[in-house]
Design goal:
Elements: H1 2-12, H2 25-51, H3 53-81, H4 86-91
Helix pairs in contact: 2-3
Length: 92
């Protein structure tokens, strides 16, 4: 019985190769946006209620500037290195 379970486990195992996968820019952008929105739906309402409207506006403005700067850095590093996938960029 144990050998049968072991064989079934081996059959169902997914092998992950070290080949680099690429992702299109629209798919990557959609993924990043959906993760950001998901995190915001959970945490932002409570935080905004606790902090008040003026501080929330300041916080969102700073967060927006940092996000735009991060995207700029990612695009610039991709342009400089010529590597347009995140795995390639990470291992460079």
């Amino acid at each position: 019985m144990d050998q049968e379970k072991l064989d079934n486990t081996r059959k169902n195992r997914v092998t992950v190769s070290h080949e680099e996968k690429t992702i299109s820019i629209p798919v990557a952008a959609f993924s990043a946006i959906s993760v950001t929105i998901g995190a915001g739906m959970v945490s932002v309402p409570k935080t905004a209620m606790e902090a008040g409207i003026p501080f929330t506006i300041v916080y969102f403005t700073i967060n927006l500037m940092l996000t735009i700067y991060s995207i700029h850095l990612l695009l610039e590093s991709a342009r400089v290195t010529g590597l347009y996938s995140m795995p390639r960029l990470a291992y460079k």
